[in-house]
## 1
Amino acid sequence: MVKIAIAGAAGRMGRQIAALAIESEQFDIVCALEAPGHEALGKDVGELAGVGAFGVKLTAELTGQPRVLLDFTCPEATLSRLDVCRRRRIAMVIGTTGLSESHLAAVADAARDIPILQSANMSVGINVLLKILPQVARALGSEFDIEISETHHRFKKDAPSGTAIMLAKAICAATGKEYAQTAIFGRGGQCPRKPGEIGMHALRLGDTVGEHTVYFGSLGETLSIRHSAHAREMFARGALKAAAWLPTQKPGLYSMFDVLGIS
């Protein structure tokens, strides 16, 4: 069994990962983490996940000897655990969104010493979409305008979503553009569309798990590619698939392409 630790174990993703890991015969949760002062500290991870007592209580410190830490928290917390894992040679699966360029640089630097898989979205469908988008963008060419819309639950802290940014960056890389100079976030007032820009639009509605649509439009036709996440479970299953694969890898920075064999 793969010994794992879960950061943010009382959060929505943390509870889902814990539930699936406990039900699986492939993983053993040896540590469940939450922020210092969190109201869930001291509670049983299994009870929080809704699958019954498991015997591991939430703590603010990384204890035990996990082979992998799964982290779906916030950038500051992820960066602090990055240093701990680097020192202790613990692999990391990072699903935290809202990471800045400096955060990503720190992740890449730590990957010189430990295997790290970092992805804003670990679903199979999204990663297949990421694989085909560059081909679509190149084939359609500059005559097609590109817009990306995403919808998530009202509690999501960052916008646009990390997945939407991944989709835009994949298109930019394929078409020789820089994301920072290409993306425009929403529109208002008098703002005619500029050639080559990618419009990014974020909606926050109720309990929506996650929806992403990429639009390609010319003066004669529109092509839209849409992905809808029906349940958070799909993200958790992808994260655990990554956690099972990662410990046997050499230090380095990996993606879900590597796990799925579509790189």
## 2
Amino acid sequence: MQMSPPPPVAPRPFRRSNSDRIFGGVAGGLGQYWNVDPVILRVAFGVSLLFGGFGLFAYLALWLLVPDETAPPGTRISDSWGLRILGAIVAFIAAGIGLGLLFGDANGGVLIGALVAGIVVWIAMSRRAPVVQAEPAEVGYAYSGGQPTTVLAAPPVPPRPRSYLGLIGLCAAIAAAGVTMLITDNPTAIMASSLLALAVTMVIGAFRGRARWLLIFAVPLLVLVSASSQVQRADITTGQVTWQPTADQESYSLSLGVVDVKFDDWDGQPDGDEVDVDVTVGDIRIAAPRNWEVRVVTDQGTTTYLDGLRENGVPDPDGAGKVILAKPTGAQQGMLTVNATTLAGGVYIDTGAPAAGNTPVIAPKKEKKA
């Protein structure tokens, strides 16, 4: 008797999971599609967040573009055109970040490429065998020789033994933070060491033991590490600082706060020199020495004050900004231009500050002897 071949199996479409999800079900859906433990994919997405936020935009793009398990069988992309357009924009941003990481820095690009290749190989080698669920036996009666026989259902699967892997991983994360604190006081490094211990534990738990509850600690820690690393990458500085420019240090920038510009350390007398001070959000306060003429150049829309009074200045002949002239209150010995830029804040100029710069001493002329 010739057996007929099994019917062809239709390819399984990629869907976001509704049952195995933490945020959008992307990692759970990829785990079901690739037959990989979703914990490994969540760790991979988490690590990719530290590289310019690539993982965040990639996850959001899949969240917007990929339908969930309730979509019709033939649907491969979201039916909403709004989600399609928004998802395409987010995917374009993710692709731009990825290309920038790969080709922006030679050494960094090699590292990122090796990491991506390692994750792909890891996923391919970590694929689990598909679980085939046998149909449960029905409880009823069968007849054999005229006598009823009871058919019992299969016994329930015994619960898995208790796993202490999660507790071990939590203790390892605390220990890693403690050791890192002895080496450095950088909060990002301290949190990253704990996050690394939790990630390694969850990856081990994908093969042995149970440690998924560590996500309760790993997810908030991942958000903090990602935000902190991006702040350090952008070199964001905050606070109220005093900047004393010199002829060798002619520029200063601050992300958030107040900059007090004083010229106590200036060597000699300026003769048309220029200095630049840039504050993203905050105020710039300039103390103009009484022996200098200080020319402050800023944007037209920037609020400016001269000695406590609102000053609109005059248009800058060399640009699109405006100029506020702080005249000396004593004998003029120098002339300086300050290019002051702030996106959200004001520029405050006070004249009459102590004289700055050391005045060269002129030796008296010797009289000729008769």
## 3
Amino acid sequence: MNVTLRQLRAFIAVAEAERFTRAADKLGLSQSSVSTLVRELEINLGLRLFDRHTRMLKLTLAGAEILPLARKAMADLDSVIGSSSQLKTLGRGRVSVAAATLQAALLMPRFIHRFCAAHPGVKVTLFDVAQDEVAELVRGGEVDFGVGTDAGQRHDLAMRPLTSDSFIAVLPPGHPMARRRELAWSDLVGVPIIGPPPGNPVREQLDFALAREGITLTRSYEVALPLTIVGMVEGGLGIGVLTTAVTKLAEALGLVVKKIGRPVIRREMSLLFHADRSLSPAAQNFRDMLLATPLVSA
């Protein structure tokens, strides 16, 4: 059986117009072409769909039963074509992105607002997670993208640089080091430090850079979320070593933020995506707009 879409369209048009001539005008075909298409459909189905008389054309019982099925098939096809067109033109679609908590709160919302204003039919879902979870969500296919730090050890992920920030020390206002204009990494050796745990990409970047300088930090407390680290500093448990992304939060809690130099170490922030998965048109547009937007790490 080789039923074609042209045959189904011709059958529906004839059934609705009740004349081959009217159906031909509607379809923009010749009457003989429409008649041939209907006859081919009857042969393919092995059914007579119309009773033909000199001045009358009437659906047979078989034709009356086939008509709603043919209409549904064509409606479903039109829906598929319409949906694919909307997806292609960003009339609809979905984008999902995972970002480390601070980037999710301070970096992504304005960009998502801008993207959604340009493409109101596209729904963007943001997952705010711990830094080391970002790459895992991308790898598992749970999100289209990740925004955060990558340790560079995941060969199944691709990354595009977005922005960077530098490492800072967060101190209670009464701490002796809070009076200094700037700190050196050597000042923090042997000092109780609060920072992320082993395996955290930000910590891995920092430890690698410090190892080249022959410096090792001692972490008295290791916690995953920057908010917790800042809270522990405020509670007097030590000095937080984070990036400039926490500056607003730390200063809002009355803490002191100091740059750490000699050397200045920067944390690179990237857009992470799976190297072997294709992106939807909406996700491609989101990626391109994000990469073209100058981002300032909060």
